[in-house]
Amino acid sequence: MDNPPTTRVFLSYARGDDEPFVRRLHADLVRAGFTVWLDRESLLSRGLSFHQEIKDAIRTGVDRIVYVGGPQAALSAYVREEWKFGLECDHIVVTPILRLGSYEQIPDELSLLHCEDFRNDAVYPVALAKLVASLREKNPKLGALFAVPPLPPHFLGRLDLIGRVRNALLVDLQGAQITTGGDVCVGMQGMGGIGKSVLAAALARNRQIRQSYPDGIVWIAFGQNL
Asked: Of 6, 65, 107, 195, which has the highest C-beta tally within 10 A?
């Protein structure tokens, strides 16, 4: 029987946070059997720009991105570009962990995901074991997006509102529900131009939503005259 392919992990971090911790994590993940991409050791010199080199590594060389949270990582445009590009690739799962700072510093787009706490070195082995178990899980199938419009370049989601609508969309999948008949719908109502369509597009891209509806998500535009 063939052995399953090795999971390939990309470590996304800011060198100004805690690089010794990242090197320790890199070594431990390698010992756990993962192929781990770390810029200090894996970045080639092929005459490509730094951004293109990183994107090529993410697009073709990894299955998971581990975002190492810290104050500098939260501010770094380079780090943000790494994990945001990973979110755009359907075959990649982004997993945040927190090394320094607070959970409020985890980027909005990642804050709804489970984030293991690595701030206390005394419990590092326990946190590492949980991370390894998570990385070994099979990547879930994501529903394909059909005609879903792109998000604005500098989109910042309202987590409270996204969470409420997401939970409403998933309520039938999270437990038995009693209905009184008829179809169940979730709608958003508000003044024109306040961002309902952008919120809907963001929800369509949400990993939990796409995992829960693996057959696909279709965007259909209609109005009074359509």
From this structure: 65
